[in-house]
Amino acid sequence: MTGGMVKSRKPIDTPLWVFQWRGRKMPMFPGLFATALVCAVFVLLVTMLQIRVVTSEKSLPRKASVILLRDDAEGRALSLRAREGGPFPSRFELSSWPGLAGLEAAVQEAVRFKSPPYVPALADLPAENWIEPLALAAKGERVFPKRTAAPVSSLNSSPLKLVPALFALSGIAPDALPRDLPPFEAVVDRAMTSGSWRFLVRLNPAGSVAECVSLEKGSDDSAPVLEAWLRRITFKLETTSGDRWIGVGVGFTNQPVDGTNAR
User: Fold this and answer.
1) Mean pLDDT in runs of 10 for the chain (263 residues)?
2) Contact, 254 vs 203, CB < 8 A?
């Protein structure tokens, strides 16, 4: 009987109430083999078995109905009813509303500025009488109106003629214009005086006119005559060296033919 008994691994001096927690050591190969076998079966099942899940589709018949409406009152009423009662009702268009014009007029009338009525204040007239009484002549006395002296004519009887005069436009001051101008021998006609003459003049350092260009569409005969007259004018000397450009205008004034101011 002693040969068939399981030997206890407890020490000899161990009390009876101490439980043996650790069991006997088992070999590792059986556990590894079982784990490898289970993994192989699992991989085989995953790779070989395929499960198809098919969802059932409901087949709906594709059909539609069409209603033809005539272009009359009944057809328009049915069309409006279909649009309002359909799944996609039409949007309300404010511009197509018949009452929009009346609403706009009412709003404009409400916001329009209304000035208060003008009520002038009444003022009393002065009590004084500003009307002078008429002086009446005595009976039998004759009264005649006063005679006014005739105005003395102060017009100069000397003959006048039209002569050209310069005025500054750009590049030159009015005080720098020459006072003594050469005589103008050409005949001043109506076409020459009616134009507004402007010239672009290039002056050399000495003050003489080196070039003259007309800027107006005047008469073909008048422009060369005025350009030739401008080339005879000598302007004041300038401190700057080199040529310079100025803009001048030509007008016409009446001057006496004889006398101190004649030209």
Assistant:
1) 50 60 69 88 84 74 80 84 74 78 88 85 78 74 78 65 87 86 85 83 86 74 85 79 85 74 53
2) no
Q: What Rg value do the Cα atoms of the chain yield, rounded? A: 63
Q: pTM, whole model, 2 decimals?
A: 0.39
Residue among 203, 212, 151 nearest 176 (CA): 203
- For residue 238, with 0-12 CB atoms within 10 Å meaning exposed, 13-18 middle and 19 or more buried, which class applies? middle
32 three-class SS? helix
- Cβ-contact 229, 164 below 8 angstroms: yes
Q: Burial of 249 by CB count in 10 Å (0-12 exposed, 13-18 middle, 19+ buried)?
A: middle
